[in-house]
Specification:
kinase; alpha/beta; 15 strands; EC 2.7.1.31; glycerate kinase activity; Glycerate kinase, domain 2; about 375 residues; Rossmann fold; Glyc_kinase_flavodox-like_fold; elongated; Glycerate_kinase
Length: about 375
């Protein structure tokens, strides 16, 4: 029996590879003779660089850049070199991520994506002719303005001065000058990987949906939504395209807007991009079962998250899917259309710190119990 194990990470506790290994360890206790194929996955958010660089044998790079609020951070990205081309793998979370600041520091009025732009510059300096950027986990709500400024774009107020950083400053934007933009931007293939389809502004836009988790009060949300809409209006004077309602432009605080002024971007669902790069369709050939999972599964899993993405590929080939999550949230019923059964691993109500510390043991035990149940069911069927 061939079992493909293809999970995402369990955030703050286990990497995607560690999750896959736990599942294999649990299943192999019951099915020691199975062929297990482990494919750690990510959907464009945190962990995407680690997954791709490990599977594709790339090389990690490090760059000290501006953090999301103040000070510098040592950000990691990766470079893939196949002899024909160089591909840079970048996560916005590495330089401009929410996890880089404390909850008390969160303030999307002033947080910036500037450090991500500095990583992109290093990638260009390294000869990258293709850049893939994952947009999950950002702390900024600046429409990618910081990225654009780091690349040489000038965002000017009515007095002709460069705007300060942060989402709130965009309210004062009067003009965009791209004459000093790094010329190499025009020659780069640029893929934006994200796991949401939200538009830039409005009720489902970047500020209203994701702003609160970045520290935005209701008053801040209104200001930021207005500022992004204004940024898009000024940008349209150059591009002749209004992006307020464009699908995916609400990712990472509207970062695709700034990126679209520097590059000819292509937005792609993060999980589909990862599955295609890793040639998962080929791996699924001949598989009898797929096991996937992530830290928490709920109705958001349907919006392009890893378990849903791999489950659709498996379902198209008639392969049954089991999912194992650290915990189960609300409205998981919609997942049953693609995933046969879903299991949580937490044994009882526990403090978060205990849940995170026991994740490995809980996951391995749950996988073992699922495998044992499959074996019992098979034995009953054969009778």
């Amino acid at each position: 029996m061939k079992i493909v194990i293809a999970p995402d990470s369990f955030k703050e506790s286990l990497s995607a590879m560690a999750v896959a290994t736990c599942i294999e360890n649990g299943f192999s206790q019951i099915f020691p003779d199975c062929e297990f194929i482990k494919i750690p996955l990510a959907d464009g958010g945190e962990g995407t660089v680690d997954v791709l660089v490990d599977m594709l044998k790339g090389k990690k790079q490090y760059k000290e850049v501006k953090g999301p609020i103040s000070g510098n951070v040592n950000a990691v990205w990766a470079l893939l070199n196949d002899g024909q081309s160089k591909t840079a793998l970048i996560e916005i979370a590495a330089a401009s991520g929410l996890d880089l600041i404390t909850p008390e520091q969160r303030n999307p009025l002033i947080s910036t994506s500037f450090g991500t732009g500095q990583i992109i510059l290093q990638a260009l300096d390294s000869g990258a002719n293709k850049i893939i950027i994952g947009l999950g986990g950002s702390a900024s709500n600046d429409g990618g303005a910081g990225i654009l400024q780091a690349l040489g774009g000038q965002l000017l107020n009515a007095q002709g001065n460069q705007l300060t950083i942060g989402g709130a400053a965009l309210e004062g934007l009067a003009a965009i000058d791209l004459s000093k933009l790094d010329k190499r931007c025009a020659d780069v293939e640029f893929i934006v990987a994200c796991d949401v389809s939200n538009p830039l502004t409005g009720d489902n836009g970047a500020s209203r949906v994701f702003g609160p988790q970045k520290g935005a009060t209701p008053e801040m949300v209104e200001l930021l939504d207005s500022a992004l809409s204004h940024f898009a209006d000024i940008a349209a004077q150059s591009t002749h395209i209004k992006q307020q309602k464009s699908a995916g432009f609400g990712a990472a605080g509207g970062a695709p807007l700034g990126l679209s002024l520097a590059f000819n971007i292509k937005i792609q669902a993060g999980i589909d991009m990862v599955l295609d790069i890793l040639q998962v369709d080929d791996v699924l050939q001949g598989a009898d079962l797929v096991i996937t999972g992530e830290g928490q599964m709920d109705n958001q899993t349907l919006n392009g998250k890893t378990p849903y993405g791999i489950a659709k590929r498996a379902q198209a080939r008639g392969i049954p899917v089991i999912a194992i999550a650290g915990s189960l949230g609300t409205e998981v019923e919609g997942l049953y259309e693609n995933i046969g059964s879903i299991f949580g691993t937490v044994r009882s109500a526990q403090p978060l710190a205990q849940v995170l510390s026991e994740a490995e043991g809980n996951l391995t035990r749950t996988a073992r119990n699922i495998a044992a149940t499959l074996l019992i069911g098979n034995e009953i069927y054969l009778k």
